[in-house]
Amino acid sequence: MKNIIFLAPPAAGKGTQSKLLCDNYNFEHISTGDLLRAEVAKQTTIGKDIDAKMKSGLLIEDNIIFNLLIDKLNNEKNTEGYILDGFPRNIKQAEKYDEILKENNQKIDYVFYLYLSKEEAVKRITGRLFCPKCGSVYNEFSLDCAPAVKDICDKCNTTLIKRADDNVETINQRYDIYMNETKPLIDFYKNKSILYELDSSLDVTEIYNQIIEIIGVNL
Ligand code: ADP
């Protein structure tokens, strides 16, 4: 069993690489952003509060994140490992997650840091489209990642939509929060010798091949 974390600024391709790995191996993809969006869709009181925070680009409280995450981890036991996408997002989350892993005799095997400049993040965010049915992510401005038919999901034919937080106003906020809260995790995991740096401006397949080379095909 291997546990993987993707660490990156918004729109660097964490979700895309996680999905590719899950298509080819028996990993469980856990995106805290997706867990939160599912909570928002339920329109509960807590969901409405999460929605407002996400729309303005703020991080959600750690206790909410852990409740959703632990619930998910408890329901997904039969995999080759977990891919965490969008978690941890600050040192407190990382330390608490270490404790949870220790209690379960598990560990993190690889942390992939996908680096991307703010300019490129803004460009990607404004073109990002996602499928509300299967979660596939596209970019209308990129030859590499555009859907074959405009605004339609290649995989399930559903009409693609924009995420409510993908706009120029919130991207600055999200990138700044990333720099202040999430980027310190790079040293945190470097010190544990499990950090691997990848250039997010390369094309999707090239990054994927680099990941496979690092984790090896026989998991
Ligand atoms: P991206 O990384 O492209 O911004 P995500 O789907 O990972 O997209 O996150 C979207 C939003 O969800 C964040 O801006 C934040 O509001 C919230 N969020 C996701 N994961 C976490 C987390 N681990 N802790 C706090 N907030 C989170």
Distance between the termini: 8 Å
How much helix, percentage-wise, in residues?
40-55%
Name the hetero compounds present. Answer: adenosine-5'-diphosphate
Number of helices: 9
Cα gyration radius (Å): 17 Å
Tell me, rounded to a whole number, the average pLDDT: 92
Strand fraction:
5-15%
Query: How would you sum up the global shape?
Result: globular
Structural class: alpha/beta
Strands side by side in the biggest sheet: 2-3-1-4-7
Please mark out the parts with pLDDT under 50 across 5 or more consecutive residues, or reply none: none
> What is the number of E strands?
7
Main sheet specs: 5 strands, parallel
Order of helices and strands: EHEHHHEHEHEEHHEH
What does this structure look like?
The chain is globular. It is built from 9 helices and 7 strands. The strands form 2 sheets. It has a 5-stranded parallel β-sheet with strand order 2-3-1-4-7, with helices on both faces. 32% of the residues are buried. It has helices spanning 14-24, 32-41, 45-55, 62-75, 91-103, 118-127, 168-182, 184-190, 204-215; strands at 4-7, 27-31, 81-85, 110-115, 128-130, 137-139, 195-199. Helix content is 47%, strand content 14%. The termini are close together. It is α/β, with parallel strands linked by helices and 219 residues long. Strand 5 and strand 6 (137-139) form a beta hairpin. Helix 2 (32-41) crosses helix 3 and helix 6 (118-127) crosses helix 7 (168-182). Adenosine-5'-diphosphate binds next to helix 2 and helix 3.
